[in-house]
Amino acid sequence: MSMMGTRVVRTEDHKLITVGGSYVDDLREPDLDGAVHAMFVRSPVAHARVTAIDSREAARAPGVVAVLTAADLDLDPPGGDHAEPWLAGDAVRYVGQPVALVLTERRYQLADAAELVDVDYDPLPAVIDLDDALAGTTLLFPGTDSNVAKTHGKPFDESAFDGCEVVVTRRIVNQRVAPAPLEVRGAACAWGADGRLTMWLSTQNPQLARDAIAGGLGLDPTAMRLIAPDVGGGFGAKIGADPDPVVLGWAARHVGRPVRWSETRSENLTAMTHGRGQQQTITIGGSRDGTVRAFGLDVVQDGGAYPRLGTTLLPGMTTLMATGTYRIPRVEAYSRSVLTTTTPTAAYRGAGRPEATAAIERAMDLFATEIGMDPAEVRRRNLIGPDEFPYQTPTGATYDTGEYAAALDRVLAAADYDGLRAEQTRRRAAGDPVVLGLGLASYVEITAGDAGGESGRMTVEPDGSVTAWTGSSPHGQGHATSFAMVLADQLGIPMERITVRHGDTDEVAKAVGTFGSRSLQLGGSAMRQAGDEVIEKARQLAAEAVEASVDDIELNTDDGAWQVRGAPSGAISWAQLAARAGDGALSADVWYSDAKPTFPFGAHLAVVEVDTGTGKVVLRRLIAVDDAGPVVNPLAFEGQRHGGLAQGAAQALLEEMTYDADGNPTTGTLADYEFISATELPDFELLDMATPTTLNPLGVKGIGEAATIGSTPAVQNAVVDALSHLGVRHVDMPAGPQRVWQAISDANRRV
Amino acid sequence: MIPATLSYRRASSVDEALGMLAEHGEDAKLLAGGHSLLPLMKLRLAAPEVVVDIGRIEELRYVRTEGDVVAIGAMTRHHDLHTDGVAGREVPLVAHVAGEVGDPQVRHRGTIGGSLAHGDPAADLPAAVLACDATLVARGPDGAREIPAAEFFAGLFTTALGPDEILTEIRVPRAADRGWGFEKFTRRRFDWSIVGVAVLGGSPTQPAVGLVNMGEAPIRATAVERALAAGATPAEAAEHAAEGTSPPDEPHASAGYRRHLATVLTARALERAAGGSPAGL
Amino acid sequence: MRVTIEVNGRRTEEEVEDRTLLVHHLRDTLGLTATNIGCDTTSCGACTVLVDGESVKSCTVLAAQADGAAVTTVEGLAEGETLHPVQQAFQDHHGLQCGFCTPGMIMAAVSLLEANPRPTREDVRTGLEGNLCRCTGYHNIVDAVVAASGQEVPR
User: Fold this and answer.
1) What's the complex ipTM?
2) Residue at which a domain ends, from A78, A95, A124
3) Is the CB of C79 inside 8 Å of chain B's CB atoms?
4) Domains and CATH numbers, chain B
5) How far is C-alpha B188 from the geometric centre of its chain's CA atoms?
6) Which of A181, A398, B47, B135 has a CA that sits 20 to 30 A from residue A701's CA?
């Protein structure tokens, strides 16, 4: 019987729950013996000219091996108009930017020495507000005439709303958040006697990281080995490599010793990229019968100080997905990425798509309120129907498959939507100070949106066990279990006998890795393709072994044995076949290139209570359909959904990275940054639905980010819905108590 | 992060600790559970050359009744105070608030004496002992002295304790027959209070109201207490909760918002102390 | 100073800098790297261990303060090949993903169950308020702790 779709406990777990993972800071590899410890000295100011760095006193501190600055680096600087230096030389542009590197013999000497590095900063104006940044009064980069570093989509065409009976427009914020994986960034590296650099890095993409770091160091990628050991979460912020490890690799060569680095959490919150950070103007138009005719999304993306993915790529995902799940004839989407003196922005779970969904889902609610129709009904009237796929959106996406209305209806039924509405009405009528809010989100997102390929390699060992290598390097998702399930199902070999390896560029030279919910679709499909190739080789060998025609040979996946069709006696096992074939003959090494994006979708309903006395919001229920096609391992699948739901709720209610007007982070420690905890979340109510895609052999779509994308606007909409009877039409995220109380107070004043 | 270099001394008695303080003077800082001091030291916001660990002084770990008061040794940990039978019966407000400090791990290490001596206006226990009209006992080179809670909290991270003194005991009047209420307002459950209100209600005196994070030190809501004494209803009296306060003004919680919260939470805490069941989450 | 601690039932005696935090003592001096460091503000709980049977955040305890105490880390939980019920439940209920918060989370759960052997789901959430997890959304962690207490987990 196939194990696909069954709840399989993870093979990864035993180590993690008994002796703990091998994260970078845990490594005790012999190659790292004698390593020096590294700490970056980071800018405490948002924007300044660096006029002098005096490291003499620091250099004399106990245990100091070297204090290195931009003046010491002999690497080619990155190019471009907005080049981000390895270490800041002339100017700093955000609090947290690396200015110097301190190397010491022991870990405890780092902070002592780092605080002695004396940097003179000649302050320049901070640019925090996005309107100020757009105005360009202060330009971040000399020689440029604007802080706008990139645009996506086409400038807004107002005529799209001509003839609409109702038009609602609103400026809303999709705030800047910290990805905050529980393991901060870390690296360790050592140069070999052969001149090769080996680096262990907490990354989602060892091969991309290798290429980036080797490039920075002026090395051929083959002169570098990069290993992602266990990685303690990434959420998009560990895609590839930041500039920091380039400096570490260089420093190791400079001092001739291995180097180890692990940042602190307070460093992490300003020096690791942030996510989101959009100011959006949403405009929705339609008729009073509930038909939406036009939608406009005008985005100002906060890129932070230097263009990373948040500037260059992600707003393009936002504009691409602006249409949402609706049949809207006219959709206008445009984004300008503007640079500010803040931490650069990049991917965070969803990476551009949650921003699109939040915009359209808030707009649908605004429209519903304006025409006095229930938000569920407005959605239902505009959802793309199941017979309309593939569906070409006005913004250029082609949705593969979907059952949007079914997802919505399933959620409404499970939640007893009508009953909840009645309870809401009852409380309002009774003047209950604790009001109820219901928030809906219908969403579609794009996974494997990069449409790059992925590698898969496997070999049947002579003992009949399997070793497989995937290019998709995980950081908590459980690839080793899920991919083993894929192969076990295909080959009929028990998964206990299948080892899935990942993360070492010397084992897998070419790969893309894990981001954008691409792993099972692409990495899993690559595995499947490798399995197919091995099966075909095995079929030939089996035919020779049993002296039958290839066409008569079949794989009995129940027994993991090859046999003449319908004749199990005389079957030949994988082990026998592998032994017979000789070393490595039953192997395949594939590049899955037929990679196409897919479009998972779902519907979420959030139920909140709002204490109108204090503004406090409590999330009571979160009910979700997340349809990503067939499920390999429901345990892992549900885990991804749970985590996504939590992070979406966290953005809606709690989390925000904030700066004061001078560009100082005001949420720069984990005591200040409101990372969501167990007490702010309810048990999640998951509903099953599985609509396959035709675009990959497994029929699967990605699930890593989907739930985040739906839950964020669902929870936000619930907060606004709770207060709608007071005249509140919008509350920006995070809907913290002060903001909610302010919205209530403002509404009361208007009345 | 890690603390700056320090010299660790452990005292096994109050006398020994006093001797160490005398020896090291201003360079020394007392370490109880460490959950106020060590976080500051790790961020290098404090860098004492010597820490004198008084957390193991057994003679300072007790909860016992002495006539009209419950005497709590200063090194009594929050968890132990929260689960102590005598404290729960005789000074339930203080016992309850001890269970609201931080999270379980913090409560396993943190001590009531450490929390009070730290003088953080966002801490919950100071407002509770203030509402209870507790007396704090300090020992110094010249012996012991008693400090009324109302005189103990002097300002931001400042108390009436001298640098050569150790807080040894908290004497809380027994209040088994009095209602109480505690409202702690946070975004996440384990956060420091944005505002907190501790009420010790009923007879023999009028309700006493202590406010958390409504100024540079925990304070009594005296205007509320006066209004109650003059016959106002709890709801009316609570409207005065912000009078005379100077709460911190921060992005996520402005001074104005805190003043509003103080009135709402005071009304709820008063209601709870009177045995009602306040609305709210 | 010289610090003597019984770690996972084994007596250790080491000379450390006075300022050494217990978590670094465990990780760097004693080589027990399961206990992780996730923050620098006593917020995340990744470093949770038991000191004399009670959960503490080992990033906020000097090794010197633990002198003479008994410390238990996740490495000391299983009895040979037999997992502790909390460990087993975390695996069975998928209470972990990246695993980084897990050792601290498990130790906090062990301490929680010691104090409250039959917690409600709400008790579990409150009892684990000092431990942050970015991956699981806590749902399966709550399942795991409830299951470890011998109670049925609704599905």
Assistant:
1) 0.98
2) A124
3) no
4) 7-53 (3.30.43.10), 60-173 (3.30.465.10), 180-273 (3.30.390.50)
5) 20
6) A181
